[in-house]
Amino acid sequence: MHARPGADQDAARVRALEELDVLHTGPERRFDRITRLAQRVFGVANASITLIDEDRQHVKSQQATGLTFEDGARADAFCDHTIRRPDTLVVEDATADDRFADNPLVAGPSHLRFYAGHPLQAPGGQRVGALCLLDDQPRRLSAPERELLQDLAAWVEDELANSTELEHAAEAQRALLPRTSPELPGHEVAGMCLPSRAVGGDFYDWEALPDGDLALTVADVMGKGFAAALTTAGVRAVFRSAVRTAGTAQALREAAATLYEDLERTSTLVTVWHGRLSPATGLLRYTDAGHSLMVVVRADGSVWRPRSGGLPLGVFLDADWAEEVVQLQPGDSVLVFSDGLLDLYDGTLSSLDRVAAAVRDGVDVQHVIDRFAVLSRRVGVRDDVTAVAIRRTA
């Protein structure tokens, strides 16, 4: 029987798991696809991906017909033996194996008999878990089947490596968002961006201009994931250079012209709301390119929605947009958001009344944003959720 890895190895594995950030992220289709294929190909009662921290085994994914397992103590885990070795562990009949005959999974109601597991390595080489096959009947694993199990384990390892890359990409994307709310006399401004995946296609931005105005942008790139995130970074950079142009419509035209070739080549559309707030007067000038998700909640509780905006960026090279103006009075609030916010309710425009009510009931704009963030965590994010809230206080 192999000795349990030392404390240094345990600590290195736990650090690797923390960096991968896959322990407490719930089911993921990318892993479920692998276990589903493994169960079907090998014809076993259970195919699972497990991860092992210092004291517990976590079932990241499993496909089972009658033989299911929950997270449990590491001491009872067959996979704890697997991570101590570089090759595949096969137990043809657990009742005939002194290491496992008294194991609760074998002696108990699960009646586990067959186990085959191949260790999973993190990008740094630490063995963090296993891809395993389990059955309630004794069986053997042929040499070709061992090779196939190793190939599937390598697929899992590729997905684990992608987790690290995704986290680095997510950190880079978060770094592009505003870090603090702007200090704007007589006004409050707050925002949030919650991607449905590690990275997303939404973003918001603001920048104080030399004349004292505040430029604000909310954009939604068609799609999700890496491709949308790459486009998002480019759109943000272009608008950063265009915001100093006099007039929000002209800034949008310049950005659209710069981006058009790239958007056409990648068949991508981008909806954009671009505004400019003058704190001395409360005047908010804005231009809408296919975004059309904005509500103004007046101090008396009434709600106003602007007319629909023009075409998104990427449709026509010669598309044009008009600047609109809304005058904010003390107590008035504005919320500009992406359609992912509607998905937190019923996903349709009929939920705008509930969105407006959340704005109306907010103590301040940060309270409004925090309420949407809490709701996102409670119901789950199916699409990127982005929102910017503005309130004139004096």
Walk me through what this model shows:
By secondary structure, this protein is an alpha+beta fold. The chain has two domains: 7-169, Beta-Lactamase (2-Layer Sandwich), CATH 3.30.450.40; 176-392, PPM-type phosphatase domain (Phosphatase 2c, domain 1, 4-Layer Sandwich), CATH 3.60.40.10. 33% of the residues lie in helices and 25% in strands. The strands form three sheets. The chain has a six-stranded antiparallel β-sheet. A hairpin with a 5-residue loop joins strand 8 and strand 9. Helix 2 packs antiparallel against helix 5 and helix 6 (225-242) packs antiparallel against helix 7 (248-265). The radius of gyration is 27 Å and the shape is elongated. The mean pLDDT is 89.
What labels would you give this structure?
alpha+beta, 2 domains, single chain, 9 helices, 394 residues, 6-stranded antiparallel sheet, elongated, Beta-Lactamase, Phosphatase 2c, domain 1, 33% helix
Sheet with most strands: strand arrangement: 3-2-1-6-5-4
Proper CATH architecture of the largest domain = 4-Layer Sandwich
Helical content class: 25-40%
Structural class comes to: alpha+beta
Low-pLDDT parts are: none
Order of helices and strands: HHEEEHEHEEHEEEHHEEEEEEHHE
Q: Which CATH class of the largest domain?
A: Alpha Beta
With helices defined by DSSP (H or I, 4 residues minimum), what is the helix count?
9
Indicate the radius of gyration in whole angstroms. 27 Å
Please tell me the total number of domains: 2
